[in-house]
Amino acid sequence: MIPYGKHKIHKSDILEIKKVLNSDFITQGPKTKDFQNAISKFSNSKYCVVSNSASSSLIIACKAIGLNKNDNVWTVPNSYVATANCALHCGAKIDFVDIDINTGNISIEKLEQKLKIALKNNTLPKLIITVHFAGSPTDQELIFDLSKKYKFKIIEDCSHSFGAKRNNFKIGDCRFSDISVFSFHPVKMITTGEGGACTTNNIKYYNKLNMLNSNGITKNIKDFKYKANSSKFYYEQQYLGFNFRMSDIQAALGLSQIKNLSKTVKKRNHLASLYKEKLSSLPVNTQYISKKNLSSYHIYVIRIIPKFFKLNHKEIFNYFHSKNILINLHYLPIHLHPFYRKLGFKRNTFVNSEMHAKTALTLPLFYDLEEKQINYIVKLLSNICK
Ligand SMILES: Cc1ncc(COP(=O)(O)O)c(C=O)c1O
Question: Are residues 270 and 254 in the same domain?
């Protein structure tokens, strides 16, 4: 069986987890702080707060930014549902901006058009959440320029792109956003089992993220509203928060994994270049990656040109799965899920995202994937071409 993605656990990772299990703290201990510092150091951001998933990190990021009931939030349909759900958890209204079919990322042209209309209608978004699809960064600097003109906040959903760069700057440095969010789910570039993180350069957001992550509580005397009450046992709840904390067991794994992140990104780029070369004679499109970008290649997505295939899109999935190659689809557009249809979203509204979903295949890509397995996957694909 060849999955579409898989974690890589080194012996050193296991040793680090064992150390925590034998220590005084298995949660909220020193490893969580060390992992936060390591993420900030790696991404060149000032602050980091780790959580139990990127889904959780996205929710506290929206709340830290001050998203309120009926605020407008825009994101792309070509993402995992958590990218949009976080806005709804704050009572905000969600809408989408279509993607550029070649990059899979937000279309700047369509964003500009939609902003002009929203300005006239007084429906400008308070927040835009971008996604660096498959690990290849968006044109974040252009979105940042638009945010100054139209006065919206930006969250980068970097769940696919830890270790990626644009113009040689690290993704997650928040140079063009308020908060960046990472995922450490096992198919991602590094894993903590489940896990996520927010990075930011804004101390106010950082303090609020910390509190929201831990039931809205602060134990920091300098943040207390009732300073006169402070004593050894004293703490204050200042927001309605959650227990989204990461444990020290997970953080120890993350801390060990992050040491291999650059190597992992290099390996994924090597495997992606093998795919690109071997697929070059087949009727498929590969993702356009700007020369400004270093992709982290979280996933390897191609788009078939249907008229050159003997099987339709669905049959291709069945064919590969019957051969134990577990190809996947990234993504069924968010607005077409039953939950979002109930909110009023319809087919034929974000046509590039819908076209992408009708033709995209996610081929296996993970650290230990071998060249002979890539050869086999490409051979299977060529067998079903006309
Ligand atoms: C773009 C994107 N955002 C958010 C998430 C949610 O991540 P998590 O599984 O860590 O909650 C994912 C997970 O696959 C994702 O791909």
Answer: no
